[in-house]
Write a structure and sequence with these properties.
The complex is a heterotrimer of chains A (about 325), B (about 450) and C (about 230). Chain A is mainly alpha-helical. Helix content of chain A is about 75%, strand content about 5%. Chain A has a two-stranded antiparallel sheet with strand order 1-2. In chain A, a hairpin with a 2-residue loop joins strand 1 (about 130) and strand 2 (about 135-140). Classes of the chains: A mainly alpha (about 325), B mainly alpha (about 450), C alpha/beta (about 230).
Chain lengths: ~325, ~450, ~230
Amino acid sequence: MELILVNLIDGLVTGLLLFMLSAGLTLIFSMMGVLNFAHASFYMLGAYFAYSISLYTGFWMGLLIAPLIVGVLGAGVERYGLRRVHQYGHVPELIFTFGLALLIEELVQFIWGKNQMPYAIPDVLNFTAFAIAGNSIPAYKIFMIFISVAIFIGLLYILTKTRVGMIIQAALSYPRTVEALGHNVPLIFMGVFGVGTALAGVAGVIAGPVLGTFPGMAFVLGSIVFVTIVIGGLGSLWGALAASLLIGWITTFAKSYNIEMSDILNGIGVVTPADLDDNIFRDLWTVTSPQIADILPYILMVLILIFRPAGLFGKRHT
Amino acid sequence: MSNTELPKGARPEEQITTDPSRAAQRMRAGSMTLTMLPWIVAAILLAMLPYIFTSNSALTIMNQMWITVVFALAYNMLLGQGGMLSFGHAVYAGVGGFACMHIMNMSDFFASFPLPVLPVFGGLFGMGLALIVGSFSTRNAGTVFAMISLGVGELIAACSVIIVAFFGGEEGISGDRTYAMPFFGNEFLQQINVYYLTAFWMLLSAGLMYLWSRTPVGRMANAVRDNPERAEFLGYSARWVRFFSFVASGFFAGVSGALFAINYEILTEENLNTASSGVILLVTFLGGVGFFFGPIIGAIVFTLVQTVLSLQTELWAFYAGTLFVLTVMFFPGGLAGLLMMHVPAFRLGKAGGLIVPYLKTLLPGAIGVLAVCGLVEMVFHVRHASTGDHEMTLFWTTFDSHAILPWVIFIGVAVIGLGIARTTAPALRDAWNEANTAGGSA
Amino acid sequence: MSVPALELIGLKKSFGKAEIIRGIDLSIGKAERHAIIGPNGAGKSTLFNLITARFPPTAGTVKLHGEDLAGLQPFQINRKGLSRSFQITNIFPAMTVFENVRCALLWAQGYKYSFWNLVNRSRDLTEGAEKILDQINLLERRDLPAGTLSYAEQRALEIGITIAGGADVIMLDEPTAGMSHSETDYITDLIMKVTEGKTLVMVEHDMGLWPCGPDFRPGLRRDHRHWRAR
C-alpha cells in the first residue's frame, strides 16, 4: 500500500513534468497546426542555460532568467523560421522543426560539450520532506509538483479569465476574423510560441538536476511528449494533462513492479513451453515490465491512433 | 527561389515541398517521354567507376552511396511522390537487412542460394512489415501518418534490445556473405565483386522505381498528394493509393537493407533507430523531393560530404544540420530544384550571361562562409581542447588558437567575403531576371 | 416509366439544431438537365454534398439509377457513374493540364491500382485525354502546370476532369461563381456542349446569364427554408 503511494507521487512528478512540455506543444499545435519537433530541444536549452546561469548567481536566478531567454529564442524561431516555412505547407514545417531539433542538439554539444553537466539540486531543497514506510520523498519532488501545478493554474486563469486569453482562444479557431477585428494575429502567434517554449524551458530548469543535463535529454523526452499530446488529442489542453499523468503513472508502475510476460501468459492459461531456450518466442516469454516501461507509451499511442485517431479528448480530426 | 503567387483556388496546404516554380514544372512534363539514354549512361558510368577509383576505400564509399541512393529513392516514393512524411522509415530497411542476416546464417539453405538474389528477400521482408503497418497508418496523410511512423519506428527500434533472438540485442547480428552458393564461380570475397552487385541492384531498383512513378497507381499517388478529395471523386480511394505506395516503398527500403547486410555483414540497432530515419529524410530533402533524380543527387552529395567532412572536422553533423535547416527555409526544392531552376535560362540560350555574376557573388560568398566555418572551428578548439593545447590545424595551416592574429584574419576574410557577396547580389538578381526573360537584348 | 437517373426521397440534414434541408423529394430522369437555384445560404451546396456523400444525411435516401447510395464512399459513388465538380476550384495544381485529365480517365479506362501498365504507353489514355482537352479548349495549355492557368481556364479544366471519366450523371457546383460576363458565357457554352446527352444537376445562385433553353427548367424553389419540387 505504501509502495503504491510512493509510486503515485513519483508518477505524478513525471506526469506533471511531461505536462509542462505537452501543454505548450499542444497550444502551439492548435494555433499553427504544426507539431513542433524542436519543443523538447527548448526544454534542453532551459536546463543548460539555467546551469550556466546558476554557476554565477545560483539556482533561483536560473529558474527566473533561463525560461525568459528560451522564450525569446522560441519567439525568434517562430518569427524568422517557421513563419517563412509556413508558406510552403505543413510537411515542410514539420521537416523544419525536425531539422531544428537536430541543429539544437549539435549546438548544445558545440557549446557545452558531450558530457553531462554537474547541474545539481539547490542546497535549500536538498532534504527529505517526509518518509512513507521507509521510502523517503525528497523535498525537491514536492517543489516540482508545486511549480507545475502553479503554472497549470496560471495558464488556465490566463486562457479563460483574461482578455488576452479570450483573444488567443478566438485566434486559435478563427485567425482571420480576429485579425479583421484589429488584433495583430502574427504577434499573438509569436507570443504563444514564445510562452510555450518558455514553459518547456521551465520544465528543463527544474528537471535538469534530477533527470540529468546532457545533449541527449531532448531526444529522450522529445518523442514521449509527442506521444502524450497525440494520446491526449492534438490541441486539447485537458487531454494533454490526462495523457501526461497517464503516461507518468504507467511508466512508473511498470518500472517498480517486476512482472514477467510468462506470469501474465500463465495467468490467462497459456502454458510455458518446456524447451523455452530453443523457442523462437523465448524473448517474448522473458520480457519484464521494467524492460518495456519506456516503450509502453508508444504502444499506447499506436493503439490510440488505430482505434481513436482523434485521441482521448480530441475533437479535431486531421 | 521566389515564391510564385498561388493561383486562385489552389490549396497551399496541400502543396508538398516542391516549389511550384513554373519553369521546373514545365520541364518535368517535358521529361515524361521515356528515354533510355540517361539509364545507359548511368550503367556505363557505374561499370567504369571502379577503374577510375580503384582503392578499396573508394569502393566502400561508392557502395555506401548506392545503398543510400536506393533507400533515398524508396523514401521519396513516400515523401515526394505520395506526400507522406515518415519519421521511422529506417525500420523497413533494417528489418529487411536483419532478415537477410538470418538467411546468411542459415548455412544449409544459404549454401544453395546465390548471393545476388538475396536483396529480393530483403525487399520481401521490408514489404511484409510495410503491409502490416501500412494497413492502419495510411488511412491519413499529414500529421497522423507522421506520428504513427514515429511511434512504430521507436517501438521496433526499442524491440531490438528486447527481442534478442531476431535483432541480436546490443551487438546486433553478423554473418558471412561468402558462404553463399558461388555465383558463376564468384564467392564475393572481394570488395569489387560486392561493388558490382550493389551497383546492379541500385540501377535495377532505380529503374523499377522510375517505372513505378509512370504507372497508373504511381500517377495517382501524385494526385492524392496534391488533392486527396478530388482524387476520391475520380474513383480512387486515397487510402488504397497511399497503401500501395507505402508497400512499394517498403519493398525497396528492404532491398537497401539487404544491400547493407551484404556490404557490412553486420546489422545493429543503429540500422533501425530514429537517427537513421532522420538521416534519410535529410538526404532526400537536400537532394530535392520534387524530382525523381533529386534523392540520387542527395545521396551522392551527402555520402561524399559525410566522408570528407567527418575526416576533417568533429563538427560535421553541426554543419549538416545547419545546411539542412537553411535548405528547408530557403530552397525547399533542394539541390534538384536549384538545378532545374536554370532550365528556362538554358532554353532561352541566356545561361551564359549568368556565369560572371555567379562567380562575382558566389566565390566571395563561399570564401566568407569558409572563414565563418574557420571561426566556428576556432571557438570549438578554444572551448573544448584539453588545457594547454593551443595548437590547431585548419585549412592545412597550423597556428595558435589563442593568439589574436588568426582571429583577426578569419574575421576579416569573413566580413570582406560576405560583404562582396552582398554588394554583388543585386547585380546577380538583375542578371537572373534578364536570363529568364524571353526576347530583349541578350 | 424507366428508373430515374437520380432520385432523392425525404432527404433531411441538420447541423446541430439548425435544420438546413427539411425533406426534399426530387426525381431527375435520364439525360435531363436541371439547375438548383437559390440565394446564398439556401442550402444548395449542402444538398449537393449530401448527394455526393461528402457528408451523411440526417434522414432520407439518395438513389442513383435506382440504387441506394447510403454508406458509400465518394470513390465508390464515382465508380457507379456520378461525377461532381466543386464550388472552390479543385484541381491538381502541381500537375500538368494533361496529367489532370489523364488521372480522371484512369479508373474509367479500367487501370485501377495497376502497377504493371505504363501510362504514357497507353494510346487510349493519351488520345482520350487530348479529346477532352480539345472539347474544353485547353489543348494548347496541355503541358502547363494546372495551377498557372487563368481562373476561367481552371474552371474549364475542372469541368473537363468531371466529365472525363464518362460518368452519365454530372453534378456541377456553381460552375460560374466569381466570373465576369464574358467568362460566364464561355463556361455556359462549354457546359451545354460537353453535357449533351448526359444527366446534369447544377447549382447556381443566379441563372440570369444562362441561355435558358427549353430543356433548362428550374428544378427547385425555396419556400420558407423549405425545398420542394415544382
